[in-house]
Design goal:
This protein has about 190 residues and is an alpha/beta fold. About 20% of the residues lie in helices and about 25% in strands. Helix 1 packs across helix 2. Bound molecules: xanthosine-5'-monophosphate and magnesium ion. One of its GO terms (cellular component) is cytosol.
Length: about 190
């Protein structure tokens, strides 16, 4: 499919919601908090592919306690921006988490469907504890009750890209978090 400029406008033309400096400050603060909360313990960071990859990479380096990584992948919105409500696991964790302190790391907590599903799935593995860290939280959009333990930014209802987050797989490498114009992909 040919991509017109309107379909995929340049990221530089979009308004910055959070700059890379603002993001770095919040990530450092969350990393410090996690390091304090888990002092003397080991943790497993489980990132939700692909959106959380960049947040996890930065957060992990802001954490001073012993940490390992794992990743899960779930069915995504794809081109559509409205959740079907059905979440499907595409990639499971590689290593057992029984008895471990686990933090699920996500890019956005939106309706809550993805993290509710993943939390239920991870709890079946009997971790010692399970918490949630999310870069962005859109509390207005929640369809199921779930809260994150660590949130970088709580935002109103808007569609964002950058810092790992995409529109049709694009813009993940944009350093800032930017607002997708409503006429293109915003809501
Ligand atoms: P739920 O609704 O299950 O969805 O909490 C979480 C997932 O939805 C995606 N999502 C977005 N992705 N910009 C994005 O690039 C957005 O504004 C946005 N809102 C939700 C995201 O992948 C998240 O993992
Ligand atoms: Mg995601």
């Amino acid at each position: 499919m040919p991509s017109s400029p309107l379909q995929f406008p340049p990221a530089a033309s979009m308004d910055v919601l959070y700059s890379k400096t603002q993001i770095a400050e919040r990530v450092a603060a969350i990393g410090k908090q996690i390091s304090e909360d888990y002092e003397g313990q080991s943790i497993v960071l489980i990132g939700v592919l692909k959106g959380a990859a960049i947040f996890l990479a930065d957060l992990a380096r802001a954490i001073t306690v012993d940490a390992t990584f794992d990743f899960v992948a779930v069915s995504s919105y794809g081109r559509a921006r409205v959740s079907s409500g059905a979440v499907k696991l595409i990639k499971d964790i590689d290593n057992p988490i029984e008895g471990k302190h686990v933090i699920l790391v996500e890019d956005i907590l939106d309706t809550g469907l993805t993290l509710s599903y993943l939390r239920g799935l991870m709890l079946q593995h009997k971790p010692a504890s399970l918490k949630i860290a999310t870069c962005l939280d859109k509390p207005e959009r929640r369809l199921v009750p779930i809260e994150a333990d660590y949130v970088a930014f709580s935002i109103p209802n808007a569609f964002v890209i950058g810092y790992g987050m995409d529109y049709a797989e694009r813009y993940r490498n944009v350093e800032d978090i930017r607002l997708m114009p409503p006429e293109v992909g915003g809501h």
